From TrEMBL:
Protein name: Ig-like domain-containing protein
Sequence ranges assigned to domain Ig-like in this UniProt record: 4-141
Organism expressing this protein natively: Synaphobranchus kaupii (Kaup's arrowtooth eel)
Tree of life domain: Eukaryota
Biased amino acid composition, Basic and acidic residues: 184-203
Length: 258
């Protein structure tokens, strides 16, 4: 009697080891606990993995709710190939699909949550033949204001962003200072350290010895007659001497004698 049982167990063990007979099961993962401020939207995250090939038309997702106070379980949302929101109840027009079946996501979004939404939410996913598995649970806690931890996380994120910005600005300033230092001080040739450093020259300037000087000369001064605008030689203001007058009179007398 024991020998046939041993043979059966050995056969089952061989089938499992060879992969012919596999233990199937759906694995569901949730965030565990979520906190939301009254009147805001919150995402209830649920992901899954299946040992069978996932087909969008075959996978079904069922979300249910258990309140904190004793009461019956209530349907929140159902999805199979398309969304089926609840036609009535506390979640009517307050829940939408936020998942992706082919991506292994079965999450939903609750809109404008209220204090009556406090409780446990279960996420059950089936992908035939994977129809067995433990449902994931999410504990939702609706509060009046954000908790200290949320404020601290937000403050830390803002401080981190400011710190990154300051580091970037400091790096830019250092680069500009290094560039100015290199421009203001000549560099030595790394291949020939004994060689005097090259001097940096501004291409817009030149050495005084290399400058070209332009001169403008004018032998005969000119003046412009304001009456008719004609350019004429500038008249001399020096008085005529008596000798020059005598010479000129003698020349006139000789002309008369002729």
């Amino acid at each position: 009697m024991c020998r046939p049982r041993l043979q059966l167990y050995a056969l089952l063990a061989g089938l499992v080891a060879s992969g012919v007979l596999q233990v199937r099961g759906m694995k569901v993962y949730t965030s565990g606990e979520v906190e939301a401020v009254n009147g805001t939207d919150v995402r209830l995250k649920c992901t899954f993995s299946s040992s069978s090939t996932v087909r969008a038309s075959a996978v079904s997702v069922a979300w249910n709710f258990r309140p904190l106070v004793p009461g019956r379980e209530e349907t929140v949302f159902f999805f199979q190939d398309k969304a089926y929101p609840p036609p009535d109840g506390r979640f009517r027009k307050r829940v939408t699909w936020a998942g992706d079946i082919m991506g292994g996501d079965a999450s939903i979004m609750l809109h404008q949550v209220k204090f009556i939404y406090n409780g446990t939410y279960t996420c059950q996913v089936k992908n035939p033949p994977d129809v067995h598995g433990i449902a994931g649970e999410v504990q939702l806690r609706v509060v009046a204001t954000a908790s200290y931890s949320d404020i601290a996380i937000l403050a830390g994120a803002v401080a981190g962003a400011i710190g990154v910005l300051l580091l970037v600005l400091g790096f830019i300033v250092c680069v500009k200072r290094c560039h100015r230092t290199r421009v203001g001080h000549p560099e030595r040739d790394p291949n020939n350290p004994d060689k005097p450093p090259r001097e940096w020259k501004d291409p817009t300037l030149c050495h005084p010895a290399e400058a070209v000087h332009l001169y403008m000369t004018c032998d005969v001064p000119f003046e412009i007659d304001s009456s008719d605008g004609v350019i004429s030689e500038e008249s001399s203001n020096e008085p005529v001497s008596s000798e020059e007058e005598g010479d000129s009179s003698d020349e006139e007398d000789e002309d008369d004698d002729d």
